[in-house]
Each structure stands twice: as C-alpha cells, then as structure tokens.
Design brief:
The protein is α/β, with parallel strands linked by helices. The strands form two sheets. Strands 6, 7, 8, 9, 10, 11, 12 and 13 form an eight-stranded parallel β-sheet that branches. A five-stranded mixed β-sheet has the order 1-3-4-5-2. Strand 6, helix 2 and strand 7 form a beta-alpha-beta unit. Helix 2 crosses helix 3 and helix 2 runs parallel beside helix 8. The longest helix has 22 residues. The protein is elongated, with a radius of gyration of 20 Å. The two termini are 25 Å apart.
C-alpha cells in the first residue's frame, strides 16, 4: 500500500486535503477515488489507513481511517553531524541515513570541504535534502522523518552545541587517532541492555551525536575542538572509507 508523509494533525474519520508534495505523488501514481493509502505524520508510534475520496487538478482529498500502532524506530536516537560530501553523494547519504533511522542530520562546512554552501543556495539544498528524507521514509516504512538542519560551519556548530541543551547528548567523533576506541565499545556506554532487547521502547530512547568529516576527514585543529567539546574518538577499523560510506557504516553499526 502506498505511504505518504502528511505533516498535519491526523485523526480517524476526518476528511482532509493532502499537502502539495503528497498530492503530487498520488497523482504521479495515478491513484483514483476509492484507492487505499497509508498516511504518517508526527506520531512515531504508528500510522493511519486512509482512502482517496476526490482527485482535483492539483489537489487530493482523503478520508482518514483507523490508526495502526506501528513501531519501527530504532532504540538509539543518533544525530548525525557530517562534513558534506560533494556532488550527489550527500543526496545518497541523506537517503540511506533516513532509511536506517537517523534522528537528525546536521550538514557541516569544514576546512577540507569540497562542497561549500551559504545563503539562498544552502537553504535550497537543505529543503531538497529534507524532501529526499521524506521520500526515503515513505519507502522504508519509517514514521519519523529526520530533520535536516541548516548548514553550519563546524566551528559554529561546536559553539552552538556547547551552549544548547543538546550538549547533554554524548558525542562520538570518527577519528584515525591512536587512542580511538572501537565504535561498538564506545557506543555500549550509551545503550542500555533493555534497548537491545526491545528496540523502540520509550524507556530505551537514548541519544548520541556522531560527528564525521568530509573527503579527507577533519583537520587536527577541528578534531581538537571536538575533543575539547567532550567528544570521544572512535574508529571503524583499519580500512579508509569514503566520507559517505564511513558515516553510513557507523549508523548501521549503531542502529541496526
């Protein structure tokens, strides 16, 4: 059954017009009145059955049906901060990170970044990546769409994180330093046994921030700043991975 993201308040037995993005998707699929669909919004504990009731030139009306409790979210909330890889690799990273169940993505500009964004261009890219994340969640069955945050420099983000409530969330830094811990060893500090036994339960929704660099990695000065902000250096092993591969390998190790 086709799934569509509807970021509005959903309740059974109501009739509503789908937001523009979902409506376009319904029309592309050539669905007709009477066809069944699934809607999900801000409630990560489930989704709604719905039925298409009316098709307009640019609008789609649906009747919301029963709520179906469905828990597909990982036990561990991982917030990914990543030096943006160039070209289409960031699109691919966002798509796969959303499929894996990342909680949020913070795109960063670093000293070695090839992709550098600011102003209107950065805003457009963030909006594009948010739509990529929505499409990935529609496909994979996730009910939580990760938030793609505004582009920041690494220095701005470290400073902001230190001043915000999010600083209470432990941080892991992907690093080649000799004292870096194996990722799973470090992450075990933040994952309760109950989270491993019963993924998705509210009692086990712990959090961690994972910081990964762009092509060429973070500079020594940038790593020093992250370590001074409380990050723990971790490694994925002896192989040198591409920027987007490294971030996704870490997410898979933490979330799957």
């Amino acid at each position: 059954m086709p799934r569509f993201h509807c970021p509005t308040a959903l309740s059974s037995s109501t009739v509503l017009e789908l937001p523009a993005g979902a409506a376009r998707h319904v029309q592309v699929l050539r669905l007709q009145p009477g066809d069944a669909i699934t809607l999900f919004g801000g409630d990560t504990s489930g989704e709604f059955h719905a039925t298409v009731t009316q098709m307009g030139r640019s609008s789609v009306q649906v009747r919301v049906g029963d709520f179906v409790p469905t828990q597909r979210e990982p036990a561990l909330r991982v917030h990914l901060a990543v030096g943006m890889p160039a070209n289409e690799r960031m699109d691919w990273l966002v798509e796969k990170a959303a499929e894996l169940g990342v909680a949020s993505i913070q795109p960063l500009t670093t000293e070695r970044s090839v992709l550098r964004l600011s102003g209107e261009r950065a805003d457009k890219k963030v909006a594009h990546w948010q739509s990529v994340a929505v499409a990935a969640c529609e496909q994979c069955g996730g009910n939580h769409v990760p938030l793609i945050l505004p582009v920041k420099t690494l220095a701005q983000w470290v400073k902001y994180r230190g001043e915000a409530a999010g600083s209470a969330v432990p941080g892991l830094l992907l690093s080649l330093r000799a004292n870096a811990l194996a990722l799973r060893t470090a992450a075990a500090t933040f994952i309760e046994p109950s989270a491993l036994a019963a993924p998705g339960t509210s009692a086990s929704r712990l959090g961690v921030t994972f910081l990964s660099g762009p092509e060429g990695g973070l500079s020594q000065g940038e790593e020093d700043a992250a370590l001074a902000a409380g990050f723990t250096p971790v490694t994925l092993g002896p192989r040198v991975l591409r920027a987007e591969t490294a971030a996704l390998a870490a997410l898979a190790a933490l979330l799957v």
